[in-house]
Amino acid sequence: xxxxxxxxxxxxxxxxxxxxxxxxxxxxxxxxxxxxxxxxxxxxxxxxxxxxxxxxxxxxxxxxxxxxxxxxxxxxxxxxxxxxxxxxxxxxxxxxxxxxxxxxxxxxxxxxxxxxxxxxxxxxxxxxxxxxxxxxxxxxxxxxxxxxxxxxxxxxxxxxxxx
Length: 163
Prior knowledge:
two-stranded antiparallel ribbon; 8 helices; 48% helix; elongated
């Protein structure tokens, strides 16, 4: 299998599969993130088996993209999402002022199939004053959004430029 695997601070794995490659329920070409470790997660179990067999090596993302800030503020997070059109400006303001999770973001959170992951992400998003790139909930949120690790890194980079 020709694929790229990147460990995100030992919290998640960003996977890029080429056309025809398969891992768990995913068939390439596709990019996705897998919480690591994640008991009961088919993709994480498949990755663990490949690592144990020595078939793949997982690179450390900190070595690959040191320019991604680890922490952004809740305001930077909301403002970046609004500037990218993921949420409205009004939702961004309500999110920062009153802690109201934007409808589009809440719908993504509500769609997370695992109860514990959904709870963790919901608590993290609704109660955070800072957002950590390496937080496992960030990887779960990215997967729920259908975003690649690069898209999340780009969001963090962009948000960090907002002063």
